[in-house]
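Slide 14.
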Amino acid sequence: MKEWHPGAFRNHAGCAEPSWVEGSTTKEDIGGMTSWPWMDLGRMAYEKAHVLQHRLVALLLQECGDGLSADGPFPFDGVFLVLEHPPVFTLGKRGGREFLCVDEAWLAEQGIPIVETERGGFITYHGPGQLIVYPVVRLRSLGVSVAELVSGLEEVMIRVLSQWGIEACRNDRNRGVWVGSRKIGSIGIHVRKGIAFHGMALNVNTDLTPFTWIEP
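Slide 15: predicted structure.
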């Protein structure tokens, strides 16, 4: 197999010098005990991160014709992307522009784009101060179903918040993580040929004002 290293992919994908380290997860979190690489991308425009996810999916499916995977399979069963986005609204499959409460032209004047996506869920906002984690993984290798992946990501957010003394919980009617009646973490997943991507967003010190511009 051709030697594969993060720098080769980074240069090919146009990423800006992310950190590349190995992490681990457990069955109680989101899969069997194993090591999973993850990339710290810092702040990255949503559109660029979206392209990167699709590129990783293509590599996992061995659909690239550029030589990166020509001599053998992609050497990992998945990658976790950790980042935050500049202000952006994204549209999910269940809810789009009809849930937007402000004029799109005004948003454009503020420099806030609206991006259509294939993920599940409704329209949502991403911005600075929000922790984003995008698992791009083969579900079979992770050993979970889509529902279990979503539940696992919710559990990750709940455990992180508990370490800060914040008691969060799930909502039986709506996916995501809640503190009382207020949503603090959201999840949207899409699956292509057994590979899941998109992921979770946890509000840490996010300006929540833009959330008032969409219907809850």
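Speaker note: The CA atoms of residues 8 and 68 lie 8 Å apart.
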